[in-house]
Amino acid sequence: MKNILLAMALLTAACNQANHDNDSFGEVNGKKVSLYVLTNSKGDTVKITSYGGIVTSWTNTDKQGKKSSIVLGFDSLSGYLAKPPYFGALIGRYGNRIAKGKFTLDSSTYTLATNNGVNHLHGGITGFDKVVWDVTEHTDSSLSLSYVSKDGEEGYPGNLQVKVKYSFSDEGLKIEYDATTDKATVINLTNHSYFNLSGNPSNNILGHQLTIMADHYTPVDSTLIPTGEIKAVAGTPFDFTTAHAIGERIDSVPGGYDHNFVLNKKDNQLEKVAELSEPTSGRHLEVWTMEPGLQFYSGNFLDGTIHNSQGIALQKHAGLCLETQHFPNSPNQPNFPTVVLRPGQTYHTVTEYKLNTVK
Ligand code: GLA
Question: Which of 95, 196, 218, 241 gets the highest tally of CB atoms within 10 A of its CB?
Fold first, then answer.
C-alpha cells in the first residue's frame, strides 16, 4: 500500500512537472534559460522567460476573432541577446534615469554605471533585464521569479533580494514586486513592455487613444532628467486627463513622449491610472498601480533596425510603454517621493494591466 501511494505521488509530481513544463529557451553565461506559458480561461496566453523576466508575448483575440500579440517581442532568446531596448523586461535596480550616475545616501556618495550619455538608465549596463532570474514557482497561471543583486552591482549599495510574481487571469496580467536589502539603497522596479494593441507592429501606435489620470508631469532637460518642477498638464500636449490620440499633439513634443506623469492617486493604493484603446482591434487596456508615477514612452528611439520574429521592421512608434514607477532621478530630488529602502523594510508594489476587447 505504502509503495502504491509513493508511486502515485511520484506519478502526480511527474505529471505536474510535465503540465507546467517549460521550453528551454537557451543559455546565458552557462545558466539555463526557460520560457514559461501562462494561460487564462479565455485561451489567452502570456509567455515569460527567466532571462530578464521578459514578457515575450501576450496573445489575445481581437474583435474580429483574430489572435495576435499585443506586446513587442521575439520567439527566441537570440532576439533578446542582441539587446533590444528593454522589450518586455523587468527593470531594476532603478527604472529610468539617475543624473550623472551619482547619488548620496546617508552621507555616502555612490557612483553608478553610466550607460545613457552621462546618465545612468534602467539599472546600468547589466540591469535586471539582462540577468537570468531563478524560478521559484510556476503554475498554469503564475510565475514567481527571484534575483539577488549583490552589494556593489552596477554601483548600488546593499545585497538586494528581489521577488517578482506574474499572475495571469481573465482580467489580465498582475505583477507583484517585493524586495529587501541588508544596507540602505535605492530601488525603483518596473516592467518595460511595449504595447501595440492592434496586434500588428507594422502599424504605429499614433492612433491609440490614451487617458492618464495625472494633472501634473515632471518636465525634463535635454538629457531627459527631470528639472525638479511638478508642472500642470492643463493646456499642454501632456494633458491626457481625457482620452486623446497619441499622434494628435506629438509633433509639439520634441523627440516624442518620454515623460513621467505624476499620478492623481493616493499614496501606496492600487488604483486605475491609465487607459489605452485601439479602435480597429477593439482592445482596451487599463493600467492599475500602487506607484506614484507613470512613464509614458511613445517608442521614439525605435528606428526600423530591429526586426521581430516575423521579420517586421519595428519603426518609430511601433509600440508604447506605460511604465509604472517612482519619478526619474528621485535619489537626487528631495521633493520627489522617496525611493530609499532600508534594512528591515520590505519594498512591495503591485501593477496590473487589465485587458478586454470591446466587440
Ligand atoms: C525608457 C526611457 C526612454 C528609453 C526607453 C528605452 O522608457 O525613458 O528614454 O530609454 O526606456 O529605449
Answer: 95
